[in-house]
Amino acid sequence: MIFLYILLYIIIAPLAGGIIVGIDRKISARMQGRYGPPLLQPFYDVIKLFNKEVLVVNKAQNFFVMFFFIFMIITGALFFTGGDVLLVIFAFTLASIFLVTGAYSTNSPYSSVGAERELLQMMAYEPMVLLTAVGFYMVSGSFNVRDIMAAPVPAVVYLPGIFLGYVFILTIKLRKSPFDLSTSHHGHQEIVKGITTEFTGATLALVEMAHWYECILLLGFIFIFFSWDSLISIPVGILACITIYFLEILIDNVFARVKWELVLKTSWIMGATFAFINIIIISII
Amino acid sequence: MSDYMKKSPWIMHYDGSSCNGCDIEVLACLTPLYDVGRFGVINTGNPKHADIFLVTGSVNEQNSSVILQLYDQMPSPKVVVAIGICATSGGIFAECYNVKGGINKVLPVDIYVSGCAARPEAIIDGVIQAVELLEKKRLEMKEYKKRKADDIYGTAK
Question: How many domains are there within chain B?
Fold first, then answer.
């Protein structure tokens, strides 16, 4: 049964993620007064990339990106089969590290700048991600996604501060505008393409597809904040995901990119104030 | 599966020695008014992600190596579009002591877009033609790969 779930996840997640990215591009375009590319544009892009020549600077880069992709799938599979949140977070971090190593292995200055910025971003969001897991444990008494989802009251009721902190770092993880330091989905060219500069063809396609899986996983976290032991929680959770994602698109189009110091400071302040106070309060009551 | 190459042309633009007018018109194509984004065009600024190389302005002694390097870094299949009269033949700068001439002095140009400065409509037309050519080149690349594999493994019919 669990293998069936994993198989379903591996097939459905990229389709859903690709469509979400397509809707994202469409809405972003409308916000900028443009018509926007077709809804299925992310799929066209990836199929095109698979048909392109693969230029390789260092043979190791394809290996690292492949493992980034594989670990992203494993992370999602752990999460959506109701696994351990801590394990999910560690696998997720490992996936990101593979991408950073892949970028470093090319020895390109743009790629290295992107990799360094990615590491700084990880430093910024990682404490908050761990506090999220701690919060879930304190509310439900378990790190398992299955138990967190079966709680009598949705976790967000007890964890509003942690939810706020998580939404804040979600902007970093989704590579949205104030915090898209390491690479950007837009035509910002000051770091060329940052961490993905040296990836071409199929390798770049894998990075794109990993992003779709990542997108679904991150929205899954939003979902478990809003789920409780009832069927009504499914539409409520999906609605919450849609609202938060729309908010992210809005933020993406409203803000200019900030410097890395501000990313680090603000995300740690969010973690140290909202999330930490939240945890102290639930530990008292 | 065949026409996906046409649906996702990622462009890179380079301005050689010119008045910069054509380059501004290339960027005008990306604005909401002309909006090439609706054809799936992304302005990459990275040769390794680009499919179509838009060159404006003429080639001089200093930028010829830059243009060549950008072209070499692009993964196949790729198309070069020369935009404006300067990129075509050197234009009014043709007689200058440092100017070599049009882009075809260093690169195999596939499509020429006329104008001084080239109109955004003409540039969009050039990009659309480049996209058609991209698909053709992809098939050629595939054919070439197959032939090479046949040579190596002796599987030719």
Answer: 1
